[in-house]
Amino acid sequence: MENFQAQVECLTSKIPVLSKIHFFSETGSTNFEAVELGKKGAPHGTLVVAGAQSAGRGRLGRHWDSPAGRGLYFSLLLRPDLEAAQAPLTTLAAGLGLAQAIRGLGVRELVLKWPNDLMVAKKKLGGILTEMYHSGSKVGFLVVGVGINVSQTAADFSPEVAPLATSLGQIGVTADRAELLQRLIPAVLGEINRLAREGAASLIQRWEQDSGMLGLEIAYECDGRRDEGRVLGLAADGKLRVAGRGGEVAELLAEDTTLL
Fold first, then answer.
1. Nearest partner of 51 among 76, 32, 24, judged by Cα
2. Which of 3, 28, 8, 31 minimizes the C-alpha distance to 18?
3. Domain of residue 245, residue span
């Protein structure tokens, strides 16, 4: 753990945008720590990293298994020049960056499941949790939380999670956590900066091309009922467009989805 901490803390000299790094051997949630720092005025480029999380969180309030020394758990505090209405698109942008970087390790079969999961063989390899605090109509600060399963075995996951999760190690990829962090941060920042420069249309086009989701069959919740359908793409505001079994087209805003 000491070596990992030292490797993380020297990243300010390797990634110029990083302004301050806060390392915790264990914390409840890196997102919680980053949000608290943001409320106190922490600058753009503040990074929070933990060796383990006791209360790691995913989307929809789900628990994220975060065993010590096995995964990569970090949150990046950003103050981008974005309208608050664009903030939900940052999850898609961060996902694109992560997917591109991880595919660069040889994980070609990775699918970026809308809106925030990294999947391999229909099992979860990683996830994103973004939280935004606005200042008027603009983003005041944004926290992008990331969890990547690096070297977990099935025994490292809870019995409920084990059938649904995987890790880089389980699919035959050996990765150093600090080196992976150094690879992922610029990838995430690059896509969020591109969103700020080019707007939503460019992001949506690239997400549709690169996510691996177009044409896939999924199950989803819509208007309180479960349905199945085929992914058509994204709407202009980032909603997922799905053709249901009856031919109707649904646009999903925050609903849960499952790959079939």
1. 24
2. 8
3. 217-259
